[in-house]
Amino acid sequence: MSTMNISLPDHLKHFVDQQVAGRGYGTSSEYVRELIRHDKDRQQLRNLLLEGASTEVTEPVNTSYFDSLRERATKQSAK
């Protein structure tokens, strides 16, 4: 694992310390790693949404479309 050192103003360091203590993180590194993972997931979701928004609609979007979408999402999350 690589090491990265960052500098924070006192008020941000205090905030990180509060998050570590109050949310059950063992270290500030664990907290920062989780923030980075969440940001990476957010960017991936954004890219998928933009990709989907730029595709041509091939079938009408109606109640049955959303029902099948929910079903697929439920099956995927169960894996």
UniProtKB/TrEMBL annotation:
InterPro entries: ParD, ParD_sf, Ribbon_hlx_hlx. Transmembrane segments: none annotated. Keywords: Toxin-antitoxin system. GO terms for biological process: regulation of DNA-templated transcription. Belongs to the ParD antitoxin family. PANTHER family: ANTITOXIN PARD. NCBIfam families: antidote_CC2985. This is Antitoxin ParD1/3/4.
